[in-house]
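Input record, target 12 of the design panel.
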């Protein structure tokens, strides 16, 4: 299905942004050697995608393409009361700590993240105090409180119009897709009642027009990144990173620093000169039908990338369903770029309408989603129950396996020392199943790959030791296993070291410690 958007108002930017290059990149380039900075990309425009970034020279895996502070950061949607400084949850109305200026609840006295450029600025504090918005917060119930905190992010964007013209102009450069969004009645009405009417009618803030508020809502929906980690989650807009186009098998990745929400975009694999630089707006372990539906609902375009165009998704078959009419047949979409195209068995030609597939996938997704992420037995039951309908590489099965490969060894009752040989083998199998697919869908320095590689080293190392002791394998077979362990540890530590999240940092550290221990034991 083609993308119907028109991009009339985008001017073509010919300049590349100044970006930091890695040492490796500098070594190949005299200019860069002198400055330490390099223009790695330029901005181009296409009818279908609007503006997007294109490499102006060959880029290596791990090269940093963009590193920047946010323009604005705010609370997520549907989340509830958070500290206006650090975005950590606060318990309302019990919270004792209040911002000394506007009296909104904060996490501690003082929260050191108050008065930051992109968050609860002095300007915002004075503005909220003058309008006495806290009076509403104090009388709201749970639902209204969630809405009130959802307004903070658009309000922060709008306040730039009053106190930071240059940032406001940068924001107004971003796509809002008002023409498309106006025709999505539920979305426009939701924004009208939850955001526009609250700001203008209830909070009596008349500094912004309805159109301006809707536009800011659109800019957020189209361009914002979900940021933060456990404890402090948020949404943020960045001056340059928003330009990255989407690809379901992207060549770059993004991470935000939990301390200050600064954004880093890095290449995951080799990018050729002239190739577009892409990130994945979604989640790698999701099948084409639902992935495209989500991208269209959330980002307002129908993706037609190579992965979406290929019914087998590069031979991974991660959307394929088992045929109920014959044995060993599998069903695939007859045209993955058409959401309505029927699905057909490759063996017996049995067909099913796309709408039935879609509603079944929704039901199964809801079931998987309702399982506590720490519930080993629940996830196992999901695989057992639906493995016969969904293919073994199906993305819903792989999602459960991805959770399980991290749970075995960590979850209560499944700590690593208590895992039987069978369960260790089970963990190994799940890791291998996920890794096989992720290596194809996200080759290179992929975070998911780094995590699974780290997880895989555990059963391999323990099983090899047990088997050597029981004389089920000899020394040279043991050394062969160790070789795989070492390569997994080296690769996962290389990938995860680049990720600022605490979990990834701990794994990278764990991988390095494991390598050191092997060296000390003179096994390497
Ligand atoms: C975050 S913005 C990216 C910057 C945008 N192209 C611009 O010019 O402002 C996201 C929007 O870019 C467009 N876009 C990004 N990736 C695309 C893709 N793979 N195919 C079609 N449109 C895409 C869509 O219009 C989407 O809503």
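The sequence produced for target 12 reads:
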């Amino acid at each position: 299905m083609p993308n119907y958007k028109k991009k009339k108002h985008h001017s073509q930017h010919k300049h590349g942004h100044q970006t930091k290059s890695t040492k490796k990149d500098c070594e190949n380039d005299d200019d860069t050697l002198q400055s330490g900075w390099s223009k790695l990309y330029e901005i181009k425009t296409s009818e279908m995608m609007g503006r997007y970034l294109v490499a102006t020279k060959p880029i290596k895996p791990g090269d940093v393409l963009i590193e920047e502070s946010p323009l604005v950061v705010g609370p997520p949607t549907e989340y509830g009361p958070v500290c206006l400084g650090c975005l950590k949850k606060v318990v309302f109305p019990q919270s004792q700590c209040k911002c000394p200026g506007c009296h909104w609840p904060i996490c501690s006295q003082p929260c050191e993240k108050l008065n930051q450029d992109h968050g609860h600025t002095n300007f915002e504090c004075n503005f909220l105090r003058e309008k006495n918005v806290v009076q509403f917060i104090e009388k709201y119930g749970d639902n209204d409180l969630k809405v009130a905190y959802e307004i903070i992010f658009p309000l922060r964007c709008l306040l730039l119009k009053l106190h930071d013209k240059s940032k406001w102009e940068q924001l107004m450069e971003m796509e809002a897709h008002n023409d498309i969004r106006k025709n999505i009645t539920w979305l426009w009405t939701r924004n009208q009642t939850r955001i526009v009417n609250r700001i203008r009618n209830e909070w009596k803030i008349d500094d912004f027009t309805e159109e301006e508020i809707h536009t800011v809502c659109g800019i957020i929906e189209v361009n914002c990144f979900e940021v933060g980690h456990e404890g402090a989650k948020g949404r943020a807009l960045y001056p340059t990173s928003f330009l990255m186009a989407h690809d379901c098998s992207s060549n770059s990745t993004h991470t935000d620093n939990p301390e200050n929400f600064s954004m880093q975009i890095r290449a995951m694999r080799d990018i050729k000169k002239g190739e577009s630089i892409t990130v994945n707006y979604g989640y790698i372990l999701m099948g084409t039908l639902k992935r495209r539906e989500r991208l269209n609902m959330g980002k307002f375009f129908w993706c037609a990338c190579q992965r979406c165009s290929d019914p087998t998704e590069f031979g991974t078959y991660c959307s394929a369903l088992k045929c109920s009419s014959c044995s060993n047949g599998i069903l695939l979409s007859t045209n993955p770029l058409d959401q309505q195209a029927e699905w057909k068995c490759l063996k017996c030609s049995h067909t099913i309408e796309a709408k039935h597939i879609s509603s079944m996938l929704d039901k199964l997704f809801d079931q998987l989603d309702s399982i506590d992420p720490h519930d080993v037995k629940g996830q196992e039951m999901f695989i057992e129950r639906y493995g016969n309908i969904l293919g073994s590489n199906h993305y819903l099965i792989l999602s459960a396996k991805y959770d399980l490969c991290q749970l075995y060894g960590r979850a209560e009752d499944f700590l690593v020392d208590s895992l039987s040989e069978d369960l260790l083998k089970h963990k190994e199998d799940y890791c291998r199943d996920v890794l096989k697919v992720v290596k194809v869908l996200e080759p290179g320095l992929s975070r998911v790959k780094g995590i699974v590689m780290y997880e895989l080293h555990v059963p391999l190392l323990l099983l090899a030791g047990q088997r050597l002791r029981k004389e089920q394998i000899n020394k040279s077979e043991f050394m062969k296993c160790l070789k795989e362990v070492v390569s997994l540890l080296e690769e996962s530590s290389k990938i995860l070291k680049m990720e600022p999240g605490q979990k990834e940092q701990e794994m990278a550290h764990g991988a390095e410690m494991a390598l050191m221990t092997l060296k000390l034991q003179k096994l390497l």
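The chain is about 45% helix and 10% strand.
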